[in-house]
C-alpha cells in the first residue's frame, strides 16, 4: 500500500513541477503556454487513462483513453465534431440493448457470486440504478454511472477480508455510496470537471481492526458522494 501511495505522490509531484515550470516560462514570454494547453489538454485524460490501466482499472481506463484520444484528434483537426452525429445514435442503441438484457428494469441489483465471496457489477446507463448489498462476504466489484445515477447501499455489507477494492466510474453521471461505520474507507482518484465528496466522519478510519474499502474513483463531468 505504501509503495502505491509513493508512486501516486511521485506522479502528482512530476505533474505539478511540469505545470509550474510551463507557467513560469509563460510568464517569461518564452512561449505561448495557453495555446499549448488549448491544443494538448486531452493528453491529461490519456495519461490518467494509462495510469488507471496500470492499476488494473480497465473499465475506467478504456473510457478515459477513448474520450482523451477522441478530443485530442479533434484538437488536431484529424476528427471533426460531426462524428458525434454517429456516436450519439450508437450510444442510444447500446442503452436499448442494455435495458432489454436487464428486462427493462430501472432498478438494478446485480450480485455475482464467486468462490471468494460476492462482487457487485452495477451499471447506470442513461437511467437510475438502486442497489442494496447485504452480502456478509463482500468482495468488492465495480460501479459505473454514464449519463445516469447509481445509488448503492453498502451499509449492511460485511467482509472477511482485510482489504476490498471497489472501482467507481462516473462519466457525465453520479454515484452515491452508503457505507457502514464498521468500514475504513480510502479513496484514490483525480476528478476532472467533477468532484468526490466523502461525508463520513474522519474518526471512522482510525481503527486498524476494521476492513479497508479502497475506492478507485474516476470522475469526468460527474460526481461521487460517500456517506
Protein model, in words:
The protein has helices at 2-27, 33-40, 42-54, 58-75, 84-101, and strands spanning 111-114, 117-125, 128-132, 138-146, 149-154, 163-171, 174-179, 184-188, 195-198, 212-220, 223-226. It is an alpha/beta fold and 227 residues long. The protein has 2 domains: 2-96, no CATH class; 98-226, no CATH class. The strands form 2 sheets. A 6-stranded mixed beta sheet has the order 1-2-4-6-10-8, with helices on one face. It has a 5-stranded parallel beta sheet with strand order 3-5-7-11-9, with no helix packed on it. α3 packs antiparallel against α4. The two termini are 24 Å apart. The relative contact order is 0.11. Residues 102-116 have low confidence and may be disordered.
Which consecutive residue ranges, at least 5 long each, have pLDDT under 50? Answer: 102-116
Number of helices: 5
- Judged by helices, strands and strand pairing, the structural class is alpha/beta
Give a short account of the largest sheet.
6 strands, mixed
Widest sheet: strand ordering: 1-2-4-6-10-8
Which sequence of SSEs, written as H and E, runs from N to C?
HHHHHEEEEEEEEEEE
Overall body shape: globular
- The fraction of residues assigned to DSSP E strands is 25-35%
Question: How many distinct folded domains?
Answer: 2
